[in-house]
Structure formats: structure tokens, C-alpha cells
Write a structure and sequence with these properties.
By secondary structure, the chain is an alpha/beta fold. It contains 16 helices and 13 strands. Helix 1 runs parallel beside helix 16, helix 3 packs parallel to helix 15 and helix 8 packs across helix 9.
């Protein structure tokens, strides 16, 4: 068994080496259709969300994914413009952008925003974008309903790396001029799975859950399909970002600018691991524990091992392999 584990480790590194040398060749041999992605993010306070959107654009440019929409789960003052900056930088300015128009977490004055913020103002002043304010951006639920209604059945993967505000509001939405299906029906009919960076497993209290506890309870109690959770403990041990900071060949990049402003080392990759699993799948990286999440009134979570429909990730692959993949993806430049 010991020799077998060594052989598998060596094989993993060989595969990674080949991917880094010939990414387009390996991808071209994959006959799978691109994974259809909606990215629901609390873009603003921390920088994991920036790495996540950079990874998705790298996947889109390689043909592994199609980014259908980028949607904010908070309503900080320039979040729509920030999303537009990244989409425009990566050459996809027409990707729909949504922000919550109802009650939502406004993070401008929270300690987390003051600690990690500031970069948002910098990049919206430096880089071009069409959207100049949240007021002219579309409502998050309308974007969800419009995008989902136009996709094939059982085809969309939703990646949530922030609060569950939009998911709860989508589930509560009624038939309208966009679709004669309710939000619950659209989710059941159009979404293949949801991958969420949320929770600590098997139990704990994590930021994305407790910042909008009401929405977390509604979303995870009533979501009609499969959910895969990338918990806090998964991203904590995957340290990435410093190679991007050191890469002086990348100039005038909002992704590198944000990392240079906010960190001077590797940092945990909470959102990045969720994005990786959403596009590349679970089998190469993690094992799954089946059951069902339970969300408490204080925003903490537990796990019902007798439940069904939910899974959380447990480590299988050496985190160093995952770090190398993420570091390569976040250094991707527009085609």
C-alpha cells in the first residue's frame, strides 16, 4: 500500500507537469462540453473572490467553462463596477452582472471591508468598465431567472462564494415576464448542482453562513438539488497567490494589482477550491461525505449524516498539487 501511494503521488505530479506545459493540448482532448457557470460572490472585502473570477475566466478561455453571469451577494457601493472591471479585462464585457436590489448585506462599514477593502476603489479608477454604479446594474434575481430560463435542463452549475442572499430570494421568486416558472421550479429544472464555499465540517461557524443567517437557512433547507460544500477547512490549507505577486511579466492586471495591494505572501484559498471543483469535478482532488447541512439560528452549522442531497469535501490529494493548479490559473492573462 505504501508503494502504491507513492506511485499515485508521482502520477499526480506527472499529470500536473504535463498540464502546465501543454494545457491546450490536454483540454483539446477533453470532449466534454464546457461547464455552464453562474458565479455568486461577495466580491469586495477579501481577495479570494478575485482569484475565483480570474480562475473562471481562465477556464472560459481554455474551453472548460462558460461564464453565464457574475452576481454579487452584497451591495457595497461599487460592487457591480468591480465585477465589470474583471469581465472587461478578460475580454468578456457582455457577461450579465447582477446585484441585490432588496435587503442585503452592505459591507462598506464592516470591519472586514475596512480591513480588506480599498482595492475596489483603486481598480475601478484604473481600469475600464461600462457599469458605473449599482443603480444601473440588473437585479440579481432577474439575472438568475433570465439566465436559467435560457439554458438547457439540468445544465447549470452555480458557484456561491459569498452569502446565500440571492439564492434565498431566487427560491422565493414567483413566475413573471421572464419565465412562467417559479424560482424553485427554475432551480429544480435548470441547475445541475450548486457548489458552495460555506460552512465548517462536520460543524462550526463560518462567515458566509452567519453574515446572512436567514438566507442560509432558507437556501440550504429548500434548495431542490445537489449541493457540494467546500468548507473552511478545505481552503485553509491550500496556500496560493505569492507566485502571482512575484510575476513581474504580468503588468496592468487588476488581479495582480489587488493581490499586490492586500497581501505579501501566500494565503488560504477558500473560494478558489470551490471554483476548481465546480469546473474540474471532485474525483481528482477530494472525497465526498454524504448527508445534509443543518444551519442554526446563530449561523453555525452541523451535519446530518442521515440526510440526503448534500456533500462536503474531504482532503484526498496533496494540497501542494492543488496549490500549483490554482497558482497557474490565477496568473492567466486574456487571450
Amino acid at each position: 500500500m505504501y508503494k502504491l501511494n507513492i506511485s499515485l503521488c508521482v502520477l499526480n505530479y506527472i499529470i500536473l507537469f504535463l498540464y502546465l506545459l501543454f494545457p491546450n493540448v490536454l483540454i483539446a482532448q477533453n470532449s466534454e462540453k464546457p461547464v455552464l457557470i453562474i458565479y455568486d460572490t461577495d466580491m469586495g472585502p477579501m481577495i479570494d473572490d478575485v482569484a475565483g473570477i480570474a480562475m473562471l475566466h481562465a477556464f472560459a478561455d481554455s474551453g472548460e467553462a462558460e461564464l453565464l453571469a457574475t452576481i454579487a451577494s452584497n451591495n457595497h457601493s461599487n460592487v457591480a463596477q468591480v465585477l465589470d472591471v474583471f469581465n472587461t479585462y478578460f475580454g468578456k464585457p457582455k457577461i450579465p452582472i447582477g446585484v441585490p436590489k432588496g435587503p442585503a448585506v452592505k459591507i462598506d462599514d464592516t470591519p472586514n471591508f475596512n480591513m480588506y477593502g480599498g482595492w475596489t476603489d483603486y481598480i475601478v479608477n484604473k481600469y475600464p468598465a461600462t457599469i458605473r454604479s449599482n443603480e444601473v446594474a440588473s437585479d440579481a434575481v432577474d439575472v438568475y431567472r433570465r439566465v436559467l430560463s435560457n439554458q438547457p435542463d439540468n445544465s447549470v452549475t452555480i458557484v456561491t462564494v459569498g452569502y446565500m442572499t440571492n439564492i434565498a430570494d431566487l427560491l422565493a421568486s414567483a413566475p413573471d415576464e421572464i419565465s412562467d416558472l417559479s424560482g424553485m421550479q427554475l432551480a429544480e429544472q435548470k441547475v445541475k448542482r450548486m457548489v458552495s464555499m460555506a460552512g465548517i465540517f462536520p460543524s462550526g461557524r463560518e462567515y458566509n453562513l452567519y453574515m446572512d443567517t436567514r438566507a442560509s437557512i432558507i437556501a440550504f433547507d429548500y434548495w431542490p438539488g445537489e449541493i457540494i460544500f467546500s468548507g473552511f477547512e478545505i481552503g485553509r490549507d491550500v496556500q496560493t497567490g505569492y507566485p502571482l505577486i512575484l510575476n513581474k511579466e504580468i503588468e496592468n492586471s487588476p488581479v495582480r494589482d489587488v493581490f499586490k495591494m492586500k497581501v505579501d505572501r501566500n494565503r488560504s484559498s477558500f473560494d478558489q477550491t470551490a471554483v476548481l471543483v465546480a469546473v474540474r469535478g471532485v474525483d481528482s482532488f477530494y472525497d465526498l461525505v454524504p448527508g445534509r447541512i443543518t444551519v442554526n439560528l446563530d449561523g453555525s452549522n452541523g451535519w446530518d449524516s442521515e440526510g440526503e442531497g448534500h456533500y462536503y469535501l474531504v482532503e484526498k490529494t496533496d494540497p501542494k498539487i492543488i496549490e500549483d493548479i490554482i497558482n497557474e490559473l490565477i496568473q492567466h492573462q486574456p487571450n
